[in-house]
Specification:
Elements (H helix, E strand, L loop, with lengths): L1 E9 L3 H12 L4 E4 L13 E2 L1 H9 L3 H7 L2 E2 L2 E6 L2 E6 L10 E2 L2 H12 L5 E4 L2 E8 L5 E8 L2 E12 L6 H5 L5 E4 L2 E9 L7 E7 L2 E8 L3 E9 L3 H4 L4 H11 L4 H7 L7 E3 L2 E4 L4 E2 L2 E3 L14 H15 L10 H25 L5 H4 L1
Parallel strand pairs: 1-2, 1-11, 2-8, 5-14, 11-20
Antiparallel strand pairs: 3-7, 4-7, 5-6, 9-10, 10-11, 12-18, 13-16, 13-17, 14-15, 15-16, 19-20
Length: 361
């Protein structure tokens, strides 16, 4: 089976899906490929900041997302020994300290609009196996597998929006420099107690960050930093003393934690690292989002940076520019901003404990 499109986007996460929609609106034919059979099921960062909010509003997508369900964070609280020691309210001009948006809601809102455009196609359960280059070395398409059948898609431009372990990046031999941050992250999700407010709560447990994030539909996401590479050792230790640190930090969650976090299996481990590519693409190919600049969960910048990447790239591509698009133009615009954000993440990580210094002393 052979297909042809102006643009082939690999990865139907927020960046790839938004870019596909914006390019289809501009009249380009788009093939959006996603290796998973369903969208939005993975355990990922789901908090919009004001940058992501502005991107969605500028394309009349925010109201559609809001109709499906989102939750604005009304305050940030720092806890010590189960007590609030500091509280931060939103800037009135922004009106929130982040917005929880389930990824499934975000993708549905974008796809519902994109799929009304005749020259937009989204193919799920489709795994790219190989890039195709012409005699000059320019990438001109991909080979993919769908339902056991091979598909070749020819396009003028290939977009790698397939995440931190990008197949497109690997296949195009673009080097990546990874940076470890000294910690990994345990995620867990529990139902919120009745009357729980839309809030972010932070605590310091044995020098490590412990965070609670309110979510839509009455849930709380727990993010718990642990020493890098330590989870295999932790799993061999008794579970109860570890989890008691959580209930000591947030006593109001004792009942929920006892009921819903009963073993190490109730945590999801995230291998934390940031990364950067010196090159954001090559002839016939562009990378964006986590595929070219992976971020840590600190500050929830990853989703918003990916949306802004897509927004920026869409302004640079058209029927007239796509065939000879110079990826360096895109890189020169976005790379300095990404470098600032990555530096800000490191500063936030290194200064987190300072929020508790006076209390601890």
């Amino acid at each position: 089976m052979n297909c042809e499109a102006d643009v082939c986007i690999v990865g139907a996460g927020p960046a790839g899906t938004l870019l596909g929609y914006l390019l289809a609106k501009k009249g380009l034919s788009v093939m959006l490929l996603e290796q998973n059979a369903e969208l939005g099921k993975a355990f990922r960062g789901e908090h919009l900041n004001e940058i992501g909010e502005v991107v969605l509003k500028s394309h009349n997508l925010f109201e559609e997302v809001e109709a499906l369900g989102l939750l604005r964070m009304e305050k940030l609280e720092y806890y010590y020994n189960g007590q609030i020691i500091k509280e931060i309210s939103p800037d009135p001009a922004v009106g929130h300290l982040g917005i929880h948006v389930p990824q499934a809601h975000l993708l549905k809102a974008i796809l519902d609009k994109a799929q009304k455009i005749p020259h937009f196609t989204c193919m799920l359960n489709t795994r790219v196996t190989r890039l195709v280059a012409d005699k000059s070395g320019r990438y001109v398409g991909v080979v993919a597998s769908k339902d056991g059948k091979s598909i070749e898609i020819t396009s003028q431009l290939i977009i790698g929006a397939d995440g931190r372990y990008s197949t497109i990046r690997k296949q195009s031999h673009i080097d990546i420099a990874k940076c470890k941050h000294g910690f990994d992250l345990l995620w867990a999700k529990i139902p919120a107690p009745q009357g729980w407010e839309p809030v972010i709560k932070m605590a310091l447990v044995e020098g490590k960050q412990l965070s609670l994030f309110s979510q839509t539909n009455g849930y709380i996401q727990i993010g718990w930093n642990i020493d890098q590479g330590s989870f295999s050792r932790l799993r061999k230790q008794a579970f109860t003393p570890f989890i008691l640190q959580l209930t000591k930090a947030f006593p109001e969650l004792a009942e929920q934690v006892t009921q819903y976090i009963t073993s190490w299996q109730d945590f999801v481990l995230l291998d934390v690292f940031s990364s950067r590519c010196e090159s954001w693409g090559t002839e016939g190919l562009v990378l964006l989002g986590d595929a070219v600049h992976t971020m840590t969960p600190t500050g929830a910048f990853g989703l918003n940076s990916a949306l802004k990447d897509a927004d920026c790239l869409a302004t640079l591509l058209s029927k007239e520019t796509i065939a000879q698009f110079d990826v360096q133009i895109f890189q020169q615009i976005r790379e300095p901003i990404i470098e600032e954000i990555l530096a800000k993440q490191i500063e936030k990580e290194q200064s987190f404990a300072a929020n508790f210094v006076e209390t601890v002393a």
